[in-house]
Amino acid sequence: MKVYNYCCFIVLLFTGIVNRVDAQSGLQKAPRPNMVVIFMDDMGYGDPECYAGAPYKTPAINKLAAEGMRFTNFYAAQAVCSASRAGLLTGCYPNRIGMHGALMPWATLALNPAEETIASTLKKAGYRTGMIGKWHLGAKAPFLPMHYGFDEYLGLPYSNDMWPVGYDGKPVTDTTDRKFKYPPLPLLEGDRPVRFIKTLEDQGTLTATYTERACDFIKRNKKNPFFLYLAHSMVHVPIAASPRFLGKSGAGLFGDVMMEVDWSVSEIMRTLKEQGIDRNTLVVFTSDNGPWLTFGDHAGNTGGLREGKGSSWEGGQREPCIVRWPAMVPAGTVCNNLSATIDLLPTLAGLAGAPLPRQKIDGIDISSLLFMKEGANPRDELAYYYGRNNLEAVRKGSWKLVLPHRGQTYKTYMPGKNGFPGGYADVAVPQALYDLAHDPGETQDVQKAHPEMVAVLMEVAGRYRRTLGDDLTKTPCAECREPGKIPTGKE
């Protein structure tokens, strides 16, 4: 595999597709591709075999990387479910649009229908749009996918652990158990339930159900450009696999689930190829946040990055990301440039020739990285927000300044086993400076040796505070928009 540390530009000749050429720049202009975004749940940076190695195999994901570009500095919008998904779909930092945390089934907030999503943006360019899997941006109509630009939807309205079933897989009957208050977990078709997920065996059907529908969507839409958003429920707990994969990985249930997820990727790629459209389909594979480490053997790994889901440390927000598009993206390449899920909307819109949302977004078009344009570095900084609007860190280049805040750590308690959680602690996090180029595990605070970088990053933090605010410094948000409000019936 060839590694390009700064995504250096090269010119390649591709067969099978004739590409246009920009007369002014001389750069190849991309043909309008089909687009598939595979969004995993709680998959860590180290979970795919091609990132950090594992006691199980992921040959299809490995092949995706070998045939495309693997990103090493790619970030989720925030390290928790609903906020991360809002950022992906809108191209905004979640706090800009009033989204935070993981929405409960009874939440009164949702993604504002006035926000434009990748789906509604691509529909303006004539794309057919479909979503399959976990939504988690509003639990009932009109705050479900088909009201945000998707032509069709099959999936769960929120996380698969939001159900009245205990960690042992048995229905909860104790009225004092917090899980007792959850409603039955519905599998939706459009806005309506088609069945309910009641058991761990039912959970084990989700990956195959999503995959079958994804392949069906591809077959039905092969003659027109399409956007497919496949948001898997796995590997979020409770993890489960279908009988054909149980016990097959030799690495426990988590390994079995990873095998089935990998099978899902292989089925989608096989279908694209059988339909004759794989060369001009852009496939993105990434995750919403890092692993939920408190679940121990039912959680993934961060590949040595610090902490996991629910934190602004690298293990919480840095994600695996692979982009495959044989028509335009050179195979077997690695990009070390900074990029994020919020960059997908402007990138995909640009490739489709679709207009950007009318309201301000935070994403940046990173197609120059995909095409390996010389000197390309579209994103040089990143803000790590968490909670409602806490600015917990900023990054510029390889330097990350962690700002004082309170955060969770998994290091205080032993991790759980067999589907039961361990614990985590709330701790004070002091200011610290890390050089991620040499210390991706964030182990050595070097602010005393580099006061000049502290000053630079404090200026970056100040700019974000002036526009998006910061609850930690009691700075109001000048540019934030309101989320959607779900009627409670008590108005």
Annotate the secondary structure layout.
Layout lengths: L19 E2 L6 E2 L4 E7 L8 H4 L6 H8 L2 E7 L5 H10 L18 E2 L7 H6 L4 E6 L18 E4 L29 E5 L2 E6 L2 H4 L2 H15 L5 E6 L20 H23 L6 E7 L26 H4 E7 L8 E3 L3 E2 L3 H9 L14 H4 L10 E6 L3 E7 L2 E4 L2 E5 L15 E5 L2 E4 L15 H18 L15 E2 L6
Parallel strand pairs: 3-10, 3-11, 4-13, 4-14, 6-7, 6-10
Antiparallel strand pairs: 1-2, 4-12, 5-21, 7-8, 8-9, 11-12, 15-16, 16-17, 17-20, 18-19
Helix pairs in contact: 6-7
Number of strands: 21
Total domain count: 2
Oligomer: single chain
**What percentage of residues falls in helices of 4 or more residues?**
10-25%
CATH secondary-structure class of the largest domain: Alpha Beta
CATH superfamily of the largest domain: Alkaline Phosphatase, subunit A
CATH topology of the largest domain: Alkaline Phosphatase, subunit A
CATH architecture of the largest domain: 3-Layer(aba) Sandwich
Residues in β-strands, percent: 15-25%
Radius of gyration over C-alpha positions, nearest whole angstrom: 21 Å
Mean pLDDT: 94
Signal peptide: 1-23
Domain Sulfatase N-terminal: 33-354
Family: Belongs to the sulfatase family.
InterPro entries: Alkaline_phosphatase_core_sf, Sulfatase, Sulfatase_CS, Sulfatase_N
